[in-house]
Amino acid sequence: MSSHSHPKADMKLLKTLCQTYAPSGNEGLLKQYILDYVAREQHKWLCKPQVFSDPRLFQDSLVLVFGQPRTAVFAHLDSIGYTVRYNRELVRLGGVRAPHGTKLKGIDKNGELNCTLEIRKEIEENKASLHGTEQRSITKLFYKGKRELERGTELVYNSSFRMSSETVQTCYLDNRLGCWTALKLAETLKDGILVFSCWEEVMGGSVPYLIKFAYENYGVHQTLVSDITWRTEGVTLGGGTAISMRDRGIPRRSYIKKIMALAEESGARYQLEVEDEGSSDAKELQSSPYPIDWCFVGVPLDFVHSPDEIAHLSDIYANLKLYQYLMAKL
Asked: Which end of the chain is flanked by fewer CB atoms within 10 Å, N or C?
């Protein structure tokens, strides 16, 4: 933590981020909140950033540039949710994992609506079967509310923010924790770029033009991905922040070794992750036409993509401590 931070104030910021409506493709409200936060808080920071947010160039993403940057941190703004189809049916927006009766909220031209998720099993006939007409059970999603929402309206989980002495639990820690880390990092950052991207939960789309901006204007070829990861048999809550040696993507080993050596120096508690699935903004960084090194560093969660994601507070602060050290030394 920076010297002038207080845990309760830190969590108040996290709570606001988690409650701000920003489903994939509709991240504008969260972008505006962060712009307002930067304008309000930057006088307390060690270095005042250049702010790049022109919607013609950055759409709903934004970029903060500090000093003479060597490394960029990527944190995605968007969340999973649902899109309203026809007759109150819903289409999944990303990998949602929510039970029947989950509280949802949406915003259309008539204002905000609170509603609940309905999961129905229906029988569908397959008349194209080689063996004649066959029946199969399918799952469909609907919303139940006082009125109908406009087609295309996005619904998100209705946040219930809970804290104990050791944990924080709420929806959308993925990836408001990554955004929180970036904003807390801004307090002490002298040199670096903070990138707030869009569409990560639905296969990406903004990272190519964002890394183009960072590489071509500042020569930045080192990146860190500030996102969350999943609790597994090898990555536990309370075990420290996670440094991913690989997931579906394979980062360059020499860069990962450099990150690991600095992590040892930092004194921050960390654990190493090795997986064969999952991805993040890193997938677009690795496939970009630029020679970009990347490493995923993030807080492990349980119940990911549900309304009840949970993280350990010690991991959250270990993650911030490591980011502060990495951005000073890389």
From this structure: N
Contact call for residues 201 and 24 (beta carbons, < 8 A)? yes
- Alpha carbons 261 and 315: distance in angstroms, whole number: 19
- Mind listing the domains of the chain with CATH numbers? 7-80+160-329 (3.40.630.10), 81-157 (2.40.30.40)
Beta strands in 67-183 (DSSP E): 71-76, 81-84, 89-93, 103-108, 111-126, 134-144, 154-157, 162-163, 167-170
User: In whole angstroms, what is the distance from residue 85 CA to residue 101 CA?
Assistant: 19
Closest C-alpha among 186, 195, 106, 115 to residue 154: 106
Q: Render pLDDT for 119-133 as a digit per residue (tens, 0 to 9).
A: 999 887 766 666 666
Examine the pLDDT at 238 and tell me if it is beyond 50.
yes
- Among 9-13, 246-250, 289-293, 299-303, the minimum mean pLDDT is found in 9-13
Q: Assign 42 to helix, strand or coil.
A: helix
Bridge partners of 244, per DSSP, are: 273, 296
Average pLDDT over residues 161-172: 96
Distance CA 288, CA 212 (A): 8
Q: How far apart are CA 227 and CA 274, in angstroms?
A: 16
CA atoms in the 13 A half-sphere facing the CB of 300: 24
Separation CA 230–CA 158 (nearest Å): 22
pLDDT tens, residue by residue, 269-290: 999 999 998 889 999 999 999 9
For the chain, state the CA radius of gyration: 21
Handedness of CA 151, 154, 157, 158 (dihedral sign): negative
The residue type at 261 = A
